[in-house]
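User: For a benchmark we're assembling, each entry needs the component sequences followed by a predicted structure for the full assembly. Here are entry 17's components. Please fill in the structure.
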Amino acid sequence: MIDKLDQIFVLLRDWLVSFLPTAWQPAAGTLLAVAMIICLFPALFALTTVFERKGLARIQNRLGPNRVGPFGLLQPIADGIKSLTKEDIVPLSADAAVHFLAPIVLVIAVFMGFAVLPMGRNMVLVDMDAGLLFYFAMGASTELAVFMAGWSSRNKYSLLGAMRAVAQMISYEVPLLLSSVAVVMITGSLSLTKIVAAQDHYSYGLPHWYIFTPWGFAGFIMYAISTTAETNRSPFDLPEGESELVAGYHTEYSGFKFALFFLGEYLAMFSISGLGTTLFLGGWSAPLAALNWVPSWIWFFSKLMLSIFVFIWLRGTLPRLRQDQLMNFAWKFVLPMCLLNLFVAAAWRFMGDGWLRWVVCSAVLIVAYSALGWSEMRKGKIGPRSYRYAE
Amino acid sequence: MLGEGIIKGLTETAKNFFGSYFIAERLTTVEYPEERIAPMESARVFPFLVFDGTDALAGLRCTSCQICEKECPPKCIFIEKSKDKKPDFVGRMQFYPARFEIDIAVCMSCQICVEVCPFESIKMDTEFELATADRFGGLLLKRDQLAKPNEYYNRIHCTEASAVDAKLAEEKAKFIAKAKAAADAAAAKSAAKALEGENG
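Assistant: Structure for entry 17:
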C-alpha cells in the first residue's frame, strides 16, 4: 500500500498508457509526464504568488490579499484573467519577432530544466548520465531570453535591465557551478538520480545529506546565494529594480507576455530550488529513517516549498544591493569560498572516515569565512556611504 | 562577523511573520469597507453649509456675502445672491444664496473659506466617499447637497461646533438685549415726547 502510494504517479502513468498499442507506449508515457510537469508547476506558481504576497504582508504586519475567494486563494485566477484580457502592446520601434520570442524562449528554457530533476523515487522524466550538465546548459540559456527581451524592446530601461541581468547571471553562474562541482566530486557522478541515491542512506536514523557535512553546508550556502542572484530575486533583484529601471528587461511587456516572464521567473525559482534539494538536501529522501514510509514525492515538494519560503523570507528582509556591491560580493567573496570549498571537499574525500576530517574541514572553512568577511568589512565597504558630489 | 546583520534581520522578520498571527496589536489593518474607524475630529475633506433648525433654506446661515467666493484660491465656489431677503438666526433680514455651488473636483480642502466666513456658515465636512460616475455634474455640489444641519456639524466636529454655538448664542443674546435696549430707549423717548407734548 505504502509502496503503491509512493509510486502512485508512475503506476497511474503506466495504467493510462497500457490502453495504447505497445509501439506507442514509451512516447505516450513521456508525453504524459511532460504534460504533468507543464500543468503542475504553473499551478504551484499560481499558489506561490498568493502565498508570497501573504507571507510578505505578514512580515510587514499586514494582512495581504484576502478578497478573492476564501483567504484570497483565488487571487491568482483573478490575476490570470486580468493579464489575459489586457492589451498586448508591442512598441512601434521594437524588433517584433525577437520581442515576441523572448518570453517563450525563457519559459521553454526553464521548463527544460525540470526534465532531469528526480521528483520522487523513479520519478524523473529523463534519467540522464550528465543530468547536472544538461540542467546548467538549460539554465544558462535563460540569459539569452532575458537579453533578447531587453534588446528587442528598444527602451533604455529594458536594455539597462537586460545588461545588468546578464552581467549578474554570468557572474553568479560561476559560483553556482563551482558549489555544485563539490557534490559531483564526492558522488563521482553527474547523474542527479545517483546524487540522490548517494544521500539516501541513514546512520543512527539520521540521513547522510550533503548539507550535514562541512563542505556541503558551505556549498549549500554559496549555492543559495548564487541561486538567489541567478533567479533575480531580492536582494539581488537589480535587473528589475523598480525604483531605478521601471521593471527592467520586461518593461515593454504587457498582458500575457508579462505573465510569461513572471511565470518564467518563478519556474526558475522552483527548478533551481529543486536542484538545490537534489544536490544538498537529499532530494526525495526522508529526513529521518523513521519517516521513510511517507511517499518520496511529498518530501521532494516539501523541501522545494521550504526553499521557496526561505526565498520569500529573504525578500521580506533584505534591501537591494548596489551593482558594485553585487559584483564585489560575487567575485571577491562567493567565488573564493567556492574554490576553497573544492579543496575542502577533496580533503574530505581523501581523509577517510573519522572525526579528524570534520575538525579539519570545518576549521578551514570557518577560518576562511571569518578572514574573508573581516577583510571585506574592514575596507569600509559596508560603512556609511559618502556622497562626493551631492554635498 | 559577516552575516550577523542578515541573521538579525531574519529573526526580526520571522518575529513579525509569526507574531502577526498571534498578537493582535501587530495587525493594525482596518479592513475598510466592512470595518471603519470613526473620522477624527480634526479631519477635513470638503466644505459644506450649516443650517439651523429643520428647514434647510430657512435656517441657512449663509448670507451670500461672497467673501469665501473671492478668497477661494482655486476659485471653486460659485454664489448667486438672492433678490429678496429672509430673516437670519437672530431675526435680521439678510440675503441668502440663490445658488451656491462648490466644484469638489477643483477644491483643494484648504479651509480658507471656513476661516474667512463671518457668519460661521461654511465648515469642513468629513464625508470622503464621494465617488461618482459623472465626473462633471456629479462632482459639482449644489446648495441643497451642501446644506447640512447644525446637529450634523455638532456630531462631526463637536468641540469646534459647541464653541461656535456658544458664540452665536452670545451674539443672539447681545442682539436681543440691544434690540430691547433700543426698543426701551425708543419707548422712553416716545413716552417723553408724548409727555412733553402734553405739557407743551
